[in-house]
Amino acid sequence: MMIMRRHHSWSISIKLWFAMTLLILAVLGGLGFTLTWLFGDFYLQQKLNSLRSEAVEISAQLASVPNWSGRLNLLESLKLTSGTQLVLLDPQGNIIVLAGSISQKGSQNTIEWYPRSLLGGSLNGLSRDLRPSDFFTEDYLAQVLSGQTISIKALPINGGAQAMLLAATPVGLNPVKGVVLLGSSPIPIQESIATFRRLILYASLIAVFLATVVSLIFAQHVTRPLGLMQRGASRMAKGDFLPIQGVTSKDEIGELAEALNWMGESLKNHMAWLSQEKNLLQGIVESISDAVVMLSIDGSILYANDSAKALWQENEIVVQERKTQIVTILQAMAVRENQSENFEVVTIGIQVLQIVMAPMSENEGIRGHVAVLRDVTASLRAEKNRREFLASVTHELRTPLHLIQGYLEAIQDEVIPKDQSEEYIDLVLEEAKRLARLVQELQEINWLERGQVMQPTAINMENFMLELDHRFQGRAQELGVKLEVSKGFGELYADQDRILQVFINLLDNALSHTPSGKTVRVFMLEEQNEMRLVVQDEGEGIPKEALPYIFDRFFRVNKARTRKDGGMGLGLAIVRQIVEAHGGNVRVESDMGRGTAFWISLPRL
Description:
alpha+beta
């Protein structure tokens, strides 16, 4: 199961906290900017409206007085709003009266009279504070003389002073007797706005801090179940399907946790089922005696059971060539167009394999192939041995029967002279005895193959070896062969008659195939759990290619030898059957021209 690599990134709680903080900052910042802007504009407009109302009121009072002396007396009795300066202009724009001060600390009832001075002429090149008349241009004067009351947000002069709020209205109409000009500094309003902005800033900082703490706690509270589910999902990806604990909410997150737990339980059951199915299938495949090989679409081996590994001898040094041959054959079968008849019988060395291949199909196409290889060498060899056995038995029976029949018919027809009939009768008798021995040996092989129970007894090996020496010394002397039988020791628990038959067959062969003047030896080796008996000769030896078949029935190394000299090829087969019936084994070692040795291993008990 593949798990995606985690990259370094912010956690969900940090992202949620950061988003909420940015949202609060944006909302409070936008709200503060909007409020201060609206607040400043509102208060400036309120101040202009107040100046306008005050100017209209003063103008009305001045217009009700018929002369200028009365008007000046009236102005001295007026109380202007703090921070407001009044300038009375004549219709030509000349300052007549200047009352009040822009500064809130200045005198409010001080009136200065400027008879017939020009507009702005009072500066006379000397430095002084700015007045409302400094911002009152001829265009504004023309508008007021036309009967309009105007409000002005005056910009700084020469870029070096502050702005001023102005209101101008005419005194009287038709004709206009003068202009009332009121001015006020926006500094108090700006200070109020600055104070308000500081309050907004402090409130925003406190709100952001509180919101940050609350949002962080909220984010951790929200993301904690997500973290638990993430760790639970990671465990499930690794095969640990324990349920997720600690998520108790009843909202969508709680439902997601329940869904993950249900999914984990379902995956656990499904994985257990898949594991059981896999073990069952693997057990079936591994228990099959036939070789099973799974190939990918490109021909590489995906799976091979133990029988397949044994088939190409995976533990052997020379495995590569044999394995390559088998894989090459399977790859050639995999690319055939007709997959429904993918059957073949091939021969590799002395082994015959029967191969059946089938494709592993999926929705997308063929994913690979499964091949079953059966070693039919043994069955073919068994069938061949059966036919050869029947042919050999038939041949071995037919020859002596034909001889017996021929000699008897010759004697009956008096073709053979009477003085020679005794000699031919001896020949017939000899063939009859040979036929009887053949039948007897076949019966013994059949008796041993049926697993007849032996009758083991304690054999004194010293007496047994002496008996062998006495039995075969006479024949050895006749053949001119030296027979050396070592002294025996210990006891062997076995069927003495059958063990004696083993050595009779082995020594008979050894003496028959050893030239005159050579030696035949019989000796024994005793080990902890078994006893080894060896019959060794110095004869012509057995060819290497004949060694695997030396214990087969009716097998003769030299087929050119007569049956009288070479026997019928059943002696060594009987030897192997007797030894194996005792739970032992027999093997042969031979070197052409130097002799042969038969090793018999028998368990002591």
